[in-house]
Amino acid sequence: MRYRLLFTLAFLGIVAxxxxxxxxxxxxxxxPPVFSPASDPYPQGIYAEGIVESDQSSGENxxxxxxVPGTVKQILxxxxxxxxxxxxxxxxxxxxxxxxxxxxxxxxxxxxSLLEELKAQPRQENLDVAEAQVKAARAMLKTANDALEKQxxxxxxxxxxxxxxxxDSALNAAAVAKANLAVAERQYDLLKAGAWIYDxxxxxxxxxxxxxxxxxxxxxxxxxxxxxxxDGTVLTINPTVGSFVSTQGSYxxxxxxxxxxxxxxxxxxxxxxxxxxxxxxxxxxxxxxRMKGQMSVRGSNxxxxxxxxxxxxxxxxxxxxxxxxxxxxxxxxxxxxxxxQKPGNVNLYPGELxxxxxxxxx
Length: 362
What we know:
Oligomer: single chain
Number of helices: 5
CATH architecture of the largest domain: Beta Barrel
Strand order of the largest sheet: 1-12-16-14-13-17
């Protein structure tokens, strides 16, 4: 009985092994690929990595930086929104600069008031006072002269009638009254002449300096409103309300670098494809009149013919590999720009990497 059970179990194990071997030997058909990998459509062509960007007459996308540092107070646009030249984009806190401009404006207004006061001289009330002082000095001089004349007459009649000291005092009093009259008349003439021309010119220069300081401060105040430098479309907004921005842009905690506050694309929906041709392949590039290319969108079977736009005639290091400023690279590339109309059935955005093939056939 025992040996029969062992033989039964061995037989069942052999059968199970045969069934398992059969099942595992069955090969399932391979799944079809989701998309076909990019391939050279030309008999003779070269490959270049490309990046989609907005259509610009020169350069790449517009990087917007503020001219003054400060805290972002308000963001007035949203990503994807079309803007026109001069439209406000971002408001930076300007409370300190606004107070400075208002202070300079008040100082300029006070300086202008003083300048107008100098030009309005002499004041009639002051002239009336000076004229009254002249009349009083004349009256005092007449009184002193009359007293002196009496003293002299009496002294001539009898030298003992008036002492020599009294006569000298009368002479001195008449001389002082005459001098006081001269001072009063000159003071009246000086007041009547108005402000000194040099005082007026000095005040004019002070007012002009303060006015220019106010205008400069107001011009700087307008820089706290970041405006669109040209017509375009908002592609990305890096800071948020409350973030600090400077002339170097906005700090990005992910890359730990400074990014533009805002990036604007072209005003039209047309897109460019900037491809980077390796310097080793440059001798194989055709003439601009015969340049044609095809673009493949990664992750799909979409392929589009490209229209040649221009070549940037400067070979530069290819730092786009990792977007690191300190990256050391030996690869140098030549940017070649093509144009493509944005397809309606394919999602294509600026900044997207694509595969580009350029025909080298004569």
